[in-house]
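Morning!

This is the sequence you dropped in the shared folder:
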Amino acid sequence: MAELHTGVGRQRGARPWPRPRRIATLSVHTSPLHQPGTGDAGGMNVYILEVARRLARAGVEVEIFTRATSGDLPPVVEMAPGVQVRHITAGPLEGLTKEELPGQLCAFTAGVLRAEAARPPGHYDLIHSHYWLSGQVGWLAKERWGVPLVHTAHTLAKVKNARLAVGDRPEPKARVIGEEQVVAEADRLVANTDVEARDLIERYAAAPDRVGVVQPGVDLDRFRPASGDRDHAAVAARRGLGLPAHGYVVAFVGRIQPLKAPDVLVRAAAALRDHDPALAEQLTVVICGGPSGSGLDRPTALIELAASLGVTDRVRFLPPQTGDDLPALYRAADLVAVPSHNESFGLVALEAQACGTPVLAAAVGGLVTAVRDQVSGVLIDGHDPTDWARTLARLLPDRALRRALSRGAERHARSFSWDRTVSNLLDVYGEAMVSHRDRLAAQLAGDPALSCSW
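The structure's back. Tokens below.
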């Protein structure tokens, strides 16, 4: 797992690539300082945070540019040794949605360019942009600075629109066009899985030799099985979180919005009650997260759904968990459910498995990589609550099967690590730098065949 490829399914041969001294990381719409699980903060925040820390440990300085959303934070925050977060003023600090941010890209770009202009020439060796809004800024900055642009989409509008949840809003055409532009201009595109790489190539006409697959990782020091007896640890974790000490716990962790489909789990609890009332009486569904995206339109919709289905007493809502509380929630659960309509990878699934908790996931996007079907969890085709209820009815009473899946989950998660992710990213960076230098050399030599963009 976590191998680096050029194109789809072809592993790049080993080569001593150059290493950047300093990277400008662009994250316009969300900051790695934000708490994942609410607003626009999620797996991308975790990705940027973990990668930046490990790049710095490897001797690569990282400066993260993000939009200022609070007057309480200084213009520059040292997140870790060698990692700075720079807050760029672009629009009002509060009340601006992600959908309104394209109107502030000019202001954000100006802030980024001014920060670089105050540095000695050649301060940054490379730009890594995250999400299409950042890619738009990176596109201009790479031209101004004369450095390569590496881009990670994290989600793609064409894929989201093809798998839209009922009641969700489609991504606008402006985003589709923006993504197409970034794909055309980036020196290298980083995909989380082969599935995402194929989407970039087939849906966005990305050149295969510019697409590299680098799988995300998991913090194996933070997310790990409890020491000692698992059952005793689960009871202690449940008590600490205010959950029933006994019975079955199935948890959803993430932003509450139609894309993530927590409603599927609530509806499955109701279907289970109709199928097996005695088993349903022993079940507690935990929804951990906050409203996000189109979920902000009806922030109480999930509570209302549980009430309308008559399962309010079976559903507990928790805010996003910080520190040791999130690993504790994973250990408290018998199963973690990830019913998303699409995921570029699915870090929650990986974190849960690293804690030894099997995962039920929709067989979509990166989840087919993050979860090993019938080994570390179960992949379910579709989002029919009846199918999810049947799977719960099969797994929850079968202690031996759940223990086998728990062992498989832990083994599967150990094959992922952020250190490996960063090692592979450094190869992508080095390759982008070499390609960029070769192109500049060709331009100086006046070779039109080699100096064209692609």
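Headline: The first helix runs from residue 43 to 57.

More detail when I'm at my desk.
O.
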